[in-house]
Design goal:
Blueprint lengths: L1 H18 L1 H8 L1 H7 L12 H28 L5 H28 L2 E2 L3 E2 L23 H19 L9 H24 L4 H5 L7 H19 L15 H20 L7 H29 L4 H15 L8 H25 L7 H19 L17 H32 L6 H6 L1 H6 L7
Helix pairs in contact: 1-11, 1-13, 4-5, 4-6, 4-10, 5-6, 5-7, 6-7, 6-9, 7-9, 7-15, 9-14, 9-15, 10-11, 10-12, 11-12, 11-13, 12-13, 12-14, 13-14, 14-15
Amino acid sequence: MKRPLSILMIIGLLTLASVTFAEEASVSSTVQAVEQAAPEASPPPAVDTGDTSWVLISTALVMLMTPGLALFYGGMVRRKNVLGTIMQSFVALGVITIVWVLYGYSLSFGPDIGHVIGNLDWAGLKGVGLEPNPDYSATIPHQAFMIFQMMFAVITPALITGAFAERFKFSTYLVFLVLWATFVYFPLAHWVWGVGGWIRNLGALDFAGGLVVHISSGVSALAAAVIIGKRKGYGAEPMPPHNLTMTFLGAALLWFGWFGFNGGSAVASGSLATSAFVVTHIATAAAALSWMSVEWAHRGKPTALGAVSGAVAGLVAITPASGFVGPMSSIAIGLTAGAICYTAVSLKTKLGYDDSLDAVGVHGIGGTWGAIATGLFASKAINPAGNDGLFFGNPSLLMNQVISVGAAWVYSFVVTLILLKVLDVAMGLRVDEESEFIGLDHSLHGESGYML
């Protein structure tokens, strides 16, 4: 009875939040006033130093999220696999950076081919210089925009590793990074953010990566969990996190870095970045409390792992909406995210797949809710360049969001499934039983995370 009661309480809070939307719209109208205050007679300089500083700082914040993810995931596995897990995140910084420079940025944001992919005009960063690009970086150097987007490409495949932690071959993983980025991330980034991309043309909104980052990684994690199979002994022996202190530190770095993830996506240091920054924090706080409360009612105790998982779920859910919603809407999004993601994680055992570190339940389901919530709560009073959602009189945006979510789910799952099948035949996906028993740290890397 406690669990339904908690759900009802959250629904009640959602209803209360909806009453405040009119007030929120009037307050946030100041965003438009600020944007319109600059006189037309004095255009901004070609490169704005304030905007450039903010984007470069945001780039550094997003870069820090990948080591933060390494610690977050590393603390959740068993001690014998901590370095192997950390390496899977850290090595993405190297691999994806080089791939992004060689051709990834060009495929993602380069001149459009058939509304599905960019061409190779910008391969090797040819033509991507220190002058602004009017399509993507009107007030900052093109290279600043490029490297900001690079950090998104780096962390996204690292998120998938939560589904196959403690059993994946490192050599195969290196190849998987390149293939997955090439055939899943780069096309999706172009669909959603690239000029000419079909989802962008559809009018669907994704401010900072709900589809491109979280749905793509979460759904791919589901495909990986299904193909790779369960850890040896899963369900028969305990596999608790070995170091929740490390996980807490990783979660704190993720929360910190996410201000650059969402706020930096405004590509300017003005009022829109401020709004995205504020709602990111509010939604995260709401989701942490929501997950903790539902878990408390369901299991009788509020866990530390649950609190930080709820925070990450809130960060995920607010990401696509962060540039389009106000504070009260973000509370509703966060509260719902905590409850939904907790439920999704709780169901994985019943559904029979081993999503080791909850990548599917947090990123796949949280990203899906966030994209749909954008279609409900988006308001042009917050961002005139966006659109109004269902609760502000425009049901068509919700339909566009649902279409984009469906496309991201199907494409990510099918392509990842194919890639893993091919890699399984060519290289093998799993370590052998002896290596899994010993642990990835010794068997793959010849090291130990702790000298005790």
